[in-house]
Amino acid sequence: MSLQYLSDNSGKHIAVVIPISEWKKMIQKHADLQELTGATMKEQKPKPSDYQGVLTAKEARLFQDHLSEIRKEWDRGF
Question: Which of 5, 28, 73, 75 lies at a 20 to 30 A Cα distance from 36?
Answer without folding.
Answer: 5
